[in-house]
Amino acid sequence: MSQDLCRCGNVSLLVYLLVILFGVSSWVDINGLWVELPILVQHLPEGWDLPSYMAVIIQIANVAPLVYTIASALYPHRVLEVPVSYLIITLGAISCFLMAFLWDATSIIAGQLHSTALLALQFCLALVDCTSSVAFLPFMSRLKPQYMPAYFIGEGFSGLIPSLVALGQGAGSMKCVEVPSSPSGNTSFIQENTSLYYTNYSINHTGTTTAKLNPFTNLTTISSFATYPIYEEPRFSVRAFFLFLMTLMICSLIAFVLLNYWSYCRRESVGQGDDEEETEHSQIHVFEEDSKPVELRSKTALFINSNDYDIAQVDLISKRDSRPALKNSEKSFKSQKGKITRSKFVLFLLLTVWLNALSNGVLPSIQTYACLPYGIQAYYLSINMASIANPVACIALIFLEMTSLTKTILTSVLGTVLTAYVVFTAVSSPSPPLVDHFSGSIICILSWTLLVFILTYSKVAIATVLRSKGKRGLLWVGAASQAGSLTGAFITFLLVNVYKIFTVGNPCI
Question: Which residue among 51, 294, 435, 436 is least enclosed by CB atoms within 10 Å?
Fold first, then answer.
């Protein structure tokens, strides 16, 4: 009776919660590292060059999902997703623990001081998160299709939870202060050396700004002041933040263990077969009233044992009643498999590549340039509202299913149009449209929130549709996601760090 209370229709709420918790481990550690950057850059020798190092390391770590995908293709009958998932979640938890104590350890490489411990451990975290896309999704093929949105809700929470914790920590909290400018009033020198004032100006206990000028600064050249931001002291330490991330990873590991071994969770599985080839020749016995076994082979056995559909509770009382039931089941199976042709499957994968290139590659790299000119409040509201929009989009898919390729293309086009506007504001920084008006901030926040919602909704809808292709289909979804993320991040990295077409706006102007 208590188990029935934990059910909502064909879904167990308890298993749903465990899947969400399992999905949190997909990107929570790397997302946590990104939101902690405003504190890290104040203490590490790379300063604000640290994000560019992190971006390169993440792309190098994509070698892990590539190796996994090749191994899955070479050994299609091996169950790789379960041991690999255990390995990467454990590695993520250990890396977060070590980072809590070693994040500020440095060493000299090629004559320059670098954060070697942080960067090495970040590579381990990147291995975890990049591989999760191609390991976690195939595991989800073991569960009923109704649990797919739960996984993506957890993936959305992997960005939301660290953001909220960092917000409570005060990471990136700024205060605008006046700093000296040149005698002519030209502040270009300060704009080019913004980090100088982040590290050489502080607020004492009375709230008064204290200038700590470098030895090369000539006091006689200062005749006016310009307003610039400085960071405030966080409410709790970086160590406590990384230990919190480790705790989340451990909770995800426990959830994964329960999903694998708890009999209550295993009842939400759709079968044991992983591939159609394995089940085509499988044999089941259906007992008639006279207890004589009847052998069922070929397509009928494929349907009953397939990991794509759960009909374990089909009750065949007699030979006369069983044949129509099996015939109808076979037709239902064929209709489900026939919904996605090869061309549609390829188009869905191409859309997955494109959507992930935008959401995981382009947008995170340009958000500072697109939002910061509108002010600190607009910047943080854009980040937090986008983090909330991600899991909300996954929940919305439960009530508003989208299986049509045409509708998916339309939502993708809408998301692309909004992305084009965001990129335009980033390129226009430090003077994007309506930068001096309150409406500009509102449009900035709404566009980012709606954009993340649409892109996430489209990605999850595609993964849910391709769930009908079983483990192989979801493996291709994960590979396409990583390929898109890699492509988008690489192109944006060149635009930001090589061609330098973006300029950061001053949030205090």
Answer: 436
CA separation for the pair 322, 315 (Å, rounded)? 8
Helix pair 363-371, 438-466: axis angle to 10 deg: 170
CA–CA dist 277, 275 (Å, integer): 5
Give the predicted TM-score (pTM) of the model: 0.69
Structure tokens at 376: 């600190």
Q: Could you tell me which of 393, 384, 381 has the C-alpha nearest to residue 442?
A: 381
DSSP 287: E
Q: Which residue in 494, 499, 238, 213 sits closest to 362, CA to CA?
A: 494
Q: Which of 493, 505, 492 is nearest to 369 (CA)?
A: 505
Tell me how far CA of residue 336 lies from CA of 324, 330, 506, in angstroms: 18, 10, 55
* pLDDT tens digits for range 183-222: 444 444 444 444 433 433 333 333 333 344 333 334 344 4
Report the distance separating Cα 365 and Cα 504, nearest Å: 12
- Read off the pLDDT of residues 39-76 as tens digits, 9 standing for 90 and up: 888 888 877 667 767 877 887 888 888 888 888 888 88
Q: What DSSP state is assigned to residue 448?
A: H
DSSP E strands: which ranges in 347-414? none
Long-range contacts of 66-73, Cβ-Cβ distance < 8 Å, separation of 24 or more? 68/131, 68/134, 68/135, 69/134, 69/475, 69/479, 72/134, 72/138, 72/475
CA–CA distance, 407 with 397 (Å, rounded to integer): 13
- For the four alpha carbons of 297, 303, 304 and 306, in that order, the dihedral sign comes to positive
Q: Is 295 helix (H, G, I), strand (E, B) or coil?
A: strand
